[in-house]
Amino acid sequence: MEFKYIVVFITTPAGKGEEIAQKLVEEKLAACVNVVDKVSSLYWWQGKIEKDKENLLVVKTKADLFKKLVKRVKEIHPYTVPEIIALPIVDGNEDYLSWIDESVNP
Questions:
Q1: CA 23 to CA 5: how far, in whole Å?
Q2: I need a surface site. Which of 21, 24, 50, 52 has the fewest CB within 10 A?
């Protein structure tokens, strides 16, 4: 099954989320980005467990823009391996989904 719309999760260093969100919306790679502040993250990195305070970006966009979004995030993100994962939007408010269509690049 192919999905037209996706939600993308991106973690950023604390304080960097707004800047990345702004660029994704300005460049019409995202219709909307929620910036969740003060996320506590635990993860493996280079053989040890790290703990950081991060921002979590919740990006609403179209599936056909995902590769462009990933490319752009990698260009502007300070992490060597940024988290950029997409989940399909199975269904939603038709008015909201239409608004996504109108708000991003065709």
A1: 20
A2: 50
Cβ neighbours for 100, distance < 8 A, ≥ 6 positions apart:
5, 31, 32, 60, 61, 62
Helix pair angle (66-76, 17-26), 10° resolution: 140
Q: What's the whole-model pTM score?
A: 0.95
Rounded distance between C-alpha atoms, residue 24 and residue 29, angstroms: 5
As a residue count, the chain comes to 106
pLDDT digits (tens, 9 = 90+) for 10-32: 999 999 999 999 999 999 999 99
pLDDT in tens, 41-52: 999 999 999 999
For residue 33, give the nearest of 54, 68, 67, 6 by alpha carbon: 6
Walk me through the domains of the chain, giving residue ranges and CATH numbers. Answer: 5-103 (3.30.70.120)
Here the tokens at position 33 are 């980005």
